[in-house]
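[Protein data]
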Amino acid sequence: MKKLEEMSLHELWQLFPIVLKAPNPNYQLWYADEKQKIVQHLHSAAIYRINHIGSTSVPELIAKPTVDILLELVGSYDLDSVISDLQSLKWLVMARNNRLKTIDLNKGYLPTGFAEKVYHLHVKPAGDWGELYFRDYLIVNPEIAKQYGELKLKLEQKYKYNRDAYTAAKTDFVTRYTQKGREAFNGSYRPVK
């Protein structure tokens, strides 16, 4: 059996297709458990803020069963040290940007397919990130969240085996409502949760 890092993008998309599921209250518990582990084991950098983001953070929204976490770090931090701390928790690095000091990691992707619990972790410097505005705008505007769910269902059928195209096809919607969130929250993130 091939290791994930030996697979082509086409093989990975076949193994990990776009699958949308009904809202699951357990996503909040999955997030809380993983957050606690990160807080307890991240010794190489100071945490500014950690948030559950993405569709699984929005009540009643259909979603890929993947819990997205935004981890914001304070000041100067060493990417290699942060990665080492997170790898001790079984996180796998998907992407790294040394210039922007960001890391994307995942957990729950196995050579046989998805594990029961799947996560994406987005490590970034403390900032004014659009993911928070988008999430909170959907939470306070359930009709927009419903429209987003409908869009995702259409795109799931069209791009089931092409994650990049699926994500790209959602970009205009996400950009529009992230901007509306910035305007609604006066350009200053204020959690609604």
Observations:
- The chain has a mean pLDDT of 94.
